[in-house]
Design goal:
mainly alpha; 2 strands; single chain; two-stranded antiparallel ribbon; 240 residues; 8 helices
C-alpha cells in the first residue's frame, strides 16, 4: 500500500494566516471607535483632520499579510485564506451577538455599554462584509496580474498598486453602504450628508494609502526572510 504524504504548513505560513485573521477580527471589534488625526496642513476635502473608523488601522494590516502570503504561496492559496476568513466573520458576529443576548451577572460590566462597544449596527456590518469580500479578492487578483506582467520582478509595484486600488474599493463600498445605501434602502443607520461621505472616504483612503506605501519595506523583509529560511531548510540533509 502506498503511503500518502500530507504537506504540513510551515511556521511562516501559519504565522501569516494568524496575522491576517487576528487583524481582521481586531478590525471587527474596533470599528465602533472613530479616530481623528490632526494634520499639519488643511486639505481641500478633509480639512485639518482625518476622521476614520478604528478598524482602518487593523484592516490595513490584513493587506500586508495577504500580499506577503500571495507572493510566497500563490494566488489560489491566498484566495482560499481570504474567503475562509470571510466566512469566519460570521462566526465572530454570531459569538459577539450571542454574548450580548445572554443574561448578565450582577458583577458584570454594564450590558448596554458592552453592546454599544462590541455590537456593530446592521449598516456597519453590511458595509464591512461587502467591502471586505470585494476588496480582498481584488487585491489578490491584481497582485498576481502584475506579477505575471513583470515576470515576478518589482514586488514593490504589485504591493503598492494592488493595496492602493483595493483600499480605494474597500473605502468607497464601506462608506457608501454603511452611511448611504443601507440607511436609504433598509432604514438602518444614519444617512450622512454628501460632503461628510466624501470627507470620510478621502480621509480614510489617504491614511490607508500612506500605510500601503510604508509597509512595502516590511513586505520585502518578510518575503526575503521566509525564502531564505525555506532555502536553508531545503539544503538540510534528509534523515533516513
Amino acid at each position: 500500500m502506498t503511503e500518502t504524504r500530507v504537506a504540513h504548513p510551515t511556521v511562516p505560513q501559519v504565522a501569516l494566516i494568524g496575522l491576517f485573521v487576528t487583524a481582521l477580527v481586531t478590525a471587527q471589534l474596533t470599528a465602533s471607535k472613530v479616530l481623528a488625526f490632526s494634520l499639519p496642513v488643511s486639505l481641500p476635502v478633509t480639512g485639518a483632520e482625518l476622521v476614520l473608523p478604528g478598524a482602518a488601522l487593523a484592516y490595513a494590516l490584513t493587506f500586508l499579510a495577504s500580499d506577503c502570503y500571495s507572493e510566497l504561496y500563490g494566488r489560489r492559496a491566498a484566495q482560499v485564506v481570504v474567503n475562509v476568513a470571510f466566512a469566519m466573520n460570521f462566526v465572530v458576529l454570531l459569538l459577539v451577538w450571542s454574548t450580548i443576548a445572554a443574561p448578565a451577572a450582577e458583577e458584570s460590566i454594564d450590558p448596554g455599554m458592552f453592546a454599544d462597544v462590541l455590537g456593530a449596527s446592521t449598516n456597519i456590518v453590511a458595509g464591512s462584509l461587502l467591502a471586505y469580500v470585494v476588496s480582498q479578492n481584488w487585491d489578490v487578483v491584481v497582485f498576481h496580474r502584475i506579477r505575471e506582467y513583470t515576470d515576478g520582478d518589482h514586488l514593490w509595484l504589485r504591493n503598492v498598486a494592488s493595496t492602493a486600488s483595493s483600499q480605494a474599493i474597500d473605502t468607497v463600498i464601506f462608506v457608501g453602504v454603511a452611511f448611504a445605501l443601507a440607511p436609504a434602502v433598509f432604514g438602518v443607520g444614519v444617512t450622512l450628508p454628501t460632503e461628510v461621505l466624501v470627507s470620510l472616504i478621502v480621509g480614510q483612503y489617504l491614511l490607508k494609502l500612506a500605510i500601503a506605501v510604508l509597509d512595502t519595506p516590511v513586505v520585502y523583509a518578510v518575503v526575503a526572510l521566509v525564502r531564505s529560511r525555506e532555502a536553508a531548510r531545503s539544503d538540510e540533509p534528509v534523515s533516513a
